[in-house]
Design a protein that fits this description.
Two copies of one chain form a homodimer. Chain A is of the alpha/beta class. Chain A contains nine helices and twelve strands. The longest helix of chain A has 21 residues. The radius of gyration of chain A is 23 Å and the shape is elongated.
């Protein structure tokens, strides 16, 4: 059973549709690639009570990891850590380790002549106030540190919302943690395009192939124009203990579905190999 | 108080990061524009139990609307209606009205010579099986009808996942319903770019302006490169009973924040007007 992950994206900009949630897709993709299983993605408001509620509901489902994005910065609307602390019923405390990280960043800004001097104003100190027991993760390209916490059997990781900062911290500090949890698990995927067969015709073929190949998941994606257009993408995925086994499983299912499509007079074409 | 909406996006492709959730952004944007308030967006798996659980948890929060996307098609992995029915503890029943819609679409495909004859195979009939008491909404450009249901004080609307179908049905059948619920409510937004002031410097200014303008929400968005880059976007939004009031409120806050930025030696530039 692959380790389970939930993603929580904090930001009013997501709820008013100002921002496309590319962070969620990027994270989901990376996490899946490492053999973990993203179970749910929730976008919520910059609101302490909402964040707290989402966090509590998420923890009740006992995922191994909760990864949040957004809401770590210096402004009043950066409320993720306050919300998480409320959800976990713990206090917010100044972390000396985090404060050193923040101070170091502003010192660099002074060296780079972006600032005259390092002043640890309240909005800057705010970024070093973490839920009690939490550990800061350094942010090499931004100011607010990311945050690592444990709650019962769940590891909570709070990442910034700026995509470049989120991605950098994920690659540097989060991947090693996830890899350990994933163990030997590997994700493998492949896609074929099917021409000349409608989605409603292919439905029973997918049923049969998935029945014969219980570890392979097949999902059909009609082209954006719906069923009328005769191109249909079939996406085959599996998670296995090594890449060879994963490839073999998907390969067997691929051959079977291709044969069934051809029997119906359709054609297939491999899209890409993961 | 603006009518509340929750969005539920169903699809494994979202959880493995194969697909960017443009549907959620598109819906959030449209819904917000009509003066309603999107409270939460949840992405969940093609799994009856998961969909059922998400639906039950969502209904406990008593939003006025729940809008789902995805999972209405003919294949085995299209499980939204089954999941919703389980969550609502009601049965799935063949809807004669929905079946007529499905039949009409396939008749059109025959006319357009995409099919030889209309056969109502099980996967096609599946698209007409709705939770008991639900009403189908016709899908002018695809096959699976959308679905409208009432549960206590919540209206549930299930839309297809293919973006063009989702958008077409939303514009035609959903907007009239939302407009009625929104009443006189109007959303207004404006953005300014701020140059030469860091996010940590602008934080107390935003605090002050939001304190003076309680109906205006101001959010700062650092450029993708983080705080170092000196451009920062401030996004000002409000929801009011008419556009004039909304504009006046945002305008007043805009002047105030601009003055504060200039006092700090920064510059501002209007980005766009909503």
């Amino acid at each position: 059973m692959a380790a389970s992950v939930e993603i929580i994206c904090v930001g009013n900009e997501l709820l008013i549709g100002k921002t496309l949630n590319t962070n969620a897709q990027w994270l989901a993709r990376r996490i899946t690639t490492f053999g973990l299983n993203v179970r749910r993605i929730t976008s919520t408001a910059d609101d302490v009570d909402e964040i707290s509620k989402v966090m509590q509901e998420t923890l009740q489902r006992k995922p191994q990891f909760v990864i949040t994005t957004g809401g770590l910065g210096p402004t009043f609307d950066d409320k993720t850590l306050e919300g998480v602390a409320k959800g976990l019923k713990c206090k917010i405390k100044l972390s000396e380790e985090a404060l050193k990280m923040v101070e170091k960043t502003y010192s660099r800004y002074v060296e780079e002549k972006l600032l005259d001097k390092v002043e640890l104003t309240p909005p800057r100190v705010k970024m070093a106030k973490l839920p009690e027991g939490a550990k800061p993760l350094s942010n090499p390209i931004g100011t607010a540190p990311a945050v690592l916490m444990e709650y019962e059997d769940t590891t909570i990781i709070a990442l910034p919302g700026v995509p470049s900062e989120m991605e950098t911290i994920f690659e540097k500090s989060v991947i090693p943690i996830l890899k350990k949890a994933a163990g030997e698990s590997t994700f493998f995927e492949t896609s074929i395009n099917v021409y000349g067969v409608m989605e409603s015709e292919i439905a029973p073929m997918i049923d049969q192939v998935m029945h014969d190949n219980p570890y392979v998941y097949i999902k059909s994606h009609p082209s954006r124009e719906g069923e009328k257009k005769s191109r249909l993408e079939l996406h085959l995925t599996t998670t296995a203990k090594d890449l060879k086994l994963a490839r073999n499983r998907v390969g067997k299912a691929l051959i079977e579905i291709t044969e069934l499509v051809q029997q119906k007079g359709g054609k297939t074409k491999l899209v890409k190999e993961g």
